[in-house]
Design a protein that fits this description.
The chain is an alpha/beta fold. The protein folds into two domains: 2-67; 139-478 and 497-518, Aldolase class I (TIM Barrel, Alpha-Beta Barrel), CATH 3.20.20. 42% of the residues lie in helices and 11% in strands. It has helices at residues 5-23, 27-47, 52-56, 62-70, 72-82, 87-100, 167-180, 193-196, 222-229, 260-266, 286-299, 314-327, 348-353, 358-371, 389-397, 407-412, 435-438, 443-468, 493-496, 504-507, 511-519, and strands at residues 121-123, 139-141, 150-152, 155-157, 183-185, 201-206, 234-240, 252-253, 274-275, 305-309, 333-337, 379-383, 402-405, 481-486, 489-492. The strands form four sheets. Strands 4-13-12-11-10-7-6-5 form an eight-stranded parallel β-sheet. A three-stranded antiparallel β-sheet has the order 1-14-15. The protein has a two-stranded antiparallel sheet with strand order 2-3. The longest helix has 26 residues, at 443-468. The radius of gyration is 25 Å and the shape is globular.
Length: 531
């Protein structure tokens, strides 16, 4: 409440000066004019709905906008300070904020990137670009065992739970998804009324804590699951094996955020730290995983069912593929989470040193599915620092069918990356369970911004594809993406990476994959000999 002290103090000052003016000289009325004007500004800030920062920090919040308005370089300075000098986040904030506000993103004076730097990636435009399609392309999710396929957008809201985000943030995201026709992943924190508020399509994520479908002992409750999965807004089910921010450990929600409401939706004790187990209790082998996924699909009435993981061991992924072949069934989709992504708080060692980057993870999953003859029935989603149209196109080239974004969607609903998420003191009401702070986020306004950002980004991706000579994602090829590998050499992704042929692992495994393929077993995640 200290942030409202300024308004209260000014109001008190106006009252005192007003009393003195009433009994003293007229000059006191002139002195009262300035605090009175500031008081009106403060009151307006608290009732307006456009700027969350002003609703939570009346009067003082104008300093932020003053810096932005003085000159472009001061605005850039402010963004750099607010993102701790991280170039990617500065670029993303510029893109997301402008698109969310309906501002065109054209800039003058060329690129701000060092295109001479080794590692620089670029898309190869065509001398004869093709016309952009009138309708934005979509991806049909659902294999032969799926009774109710779902048409997925090229860009969707990635998994973020109620608890990590406020109720108003989830409402805005879901209403934006409904307006724009894209999907909203619930995160592992359970299916809540706030995810359902706007009528948007949902991917219900189930984690190792089985929140929202949990027995008193912490196991999976099939009856709860079937009841909630039957909801018409739930279009797909996703089982979280691991996440990019912290692969190998479960999620953590600090005790300060475990309100009575969150405890109810998750099925956990109130005001106690909520920790997901690092591993699932419902399965222990690749075969059991595939059977559990089939059971989830059956309980949901045949809706698309898949899993999410940050790739670690290639042997374990191949073991899952062997289990699919052995069981005669497969998930409808796999979401690959890159180790560089993740909005969740995590130990620094995990953020920086565990898990494969999205590019490598995508390559492994795509090649494994192709070479085992499973790619045609399984779609691949990609999440991890996906924010701009070029991110979407790159991931499609690298093997994905669609993408998910978390960080960018948070920015669309007002996140300024204050990095106070774990304290429950988010200044703009996005990542907090404090109702006084969350009220600052106007749902209707931020829903429109979310829809604007998503549509503009997908349209930019489609325009980029047309510039490459591709009218549809299916026409993208690895030679359309190139990378500078030395100061004088650049190579296409077709040259840099190995691309296995359909069924190659089943017929004649290449030497580079033979050891891992031989070590993988459908009956265990832990073979005796692993490279």
């Amino acid at each position: 409440m200290l942030r409202f002290f300024v308004v209260g103090f000014i109001g008190f000052a106006v009252l005192i000066v007003g009393v003195v003016a009433a009994v003293g000289s007229w000059a006191w009325w002139l002195l009262a004019a300035l605090p009175a004007a500031l008081l009106l500004v403060g009151i307006y800030d608290m009732v307006q709905r456009k700027h969350s920062i002003l609703r939570n920090y009346p009067i003082l919040g104008h300093m932020r906008f003053l810096l932005e308005s003085l000159r472009p370089e001061l605005q850039q300075y402010f963004i750099e300070r607010n993102t701790e000098g991280r170039p990617y986040d500065r670029e993303v904030r510029t893109i997301v904020y402008e698109r969310a506000k309906g501002i065109h993103g054209e800039l003058s004076f060329g690129t701000e990137r060092d295109i001479e730097e080794v590692g620089y990636e670029y898309l190869v435009h065509s001398t004869v670009p093709v016309p952009e399609p009138e309708e934005l392309p979509r991806v049909l999710i659902g294999g032969p065992d799926c009774a109710r396929p779902y048409s997925m957008s090229l860009l969707n809201v990635s998994s973020m739970s109620f608890g990590a985000l406020s109720a108003n943030a989830l409402r805005a995201l879901n209403r934006g998804a409904a307006m724009g026709g894209f999907a909203h992943d619930t995160g592992e924190g359970g299916l809540t009324p706030y995810h359902l508020d706007g009528g948007g399509d949902l991917v219900w994520e189930i984690g190792s804590g089985y929140f929202g479908t949990r027995t008193p002992q912490g196991g999976f409750d099939p009856d709860q699951f079937a009841d909630k999965a039957a909801h018409d807004q739930v279009k797909a089910l996703s089982l979280k094996l691991s996440q990019g921010a912290k692969p190998g450990i479960g999620g953590v929600l600090p005790a300060a955020k475990v309100t009575a409401e969150i405890a109810e939706y998750r099925g956990v004790p109130v005001h106690e730290k909520c920790v997901s187990p690092s591993a699932h209790s419902e399965f222990a082998t690749p075969r059991e995983l595939i059977r559990f996924l089939s059971r989830m699909r059956e309980l949901s009435g045949g809706k698309p069912t898949g899993f999410k993981l940050c790739v670690g061991s290639r042997v374990e992924l191949l073991a899952i593929c062997k289990a699919m072949l052995a069981e005669g069934t497969a998930p409808d989709f796999i979401i690959v989470d890159g180790a560089e992504g993740g909005t969740a708080a995590a130990p620094l060692e995990y953020e920086d040193h565990v898990g494969l980057p999205l590019t490598d993870g995508l390559m492994i999953v795509h090649n494994a599915l192709v070479a085992t003859g499973l790619r045609d029935r399984i779609k691949i989603g990609a999440s991890g620092k996906v924010a701009a149209g070029n991110d979407i196109v790159k991931r499609l080239i690298q093997g994905a069918d669609y993408t998910n974004a978390a960080r960018a969607m948070m920015m669309a609903v007002g996140c300024i990356q204050a990095q106070r998420c774990h304290t429950n003191e988010c200044p703009v009401g996005v990542a907090t369970q404090d109702p006084r702070r969350a009220r600052a986020l106007d749902v209707a306004d931020k829903a429109v911004r979310t829809q604007r950002y998503q549509e503009a980004t997908v349209r930019q991706a489609v325009q980029l594809m047309a510039s490459l000579g591709a009218a549809h994602p299916d026409e993208l090829t690895p030679d359309m993406l190139r990378k500078k590998v030395s100061p004088t050499t650049q190579r296409s992704f077709a040259e840099l990476y190995e691309w296995l042929a359909p069924g190659e692992l089943l017929a004649d495994p290449p030497q580079s994959w033979a050891v891992d393929w031989a070590a993988a077993s459908a009956d265990t995640f832990r073979p005796k000999s692993v490279r």
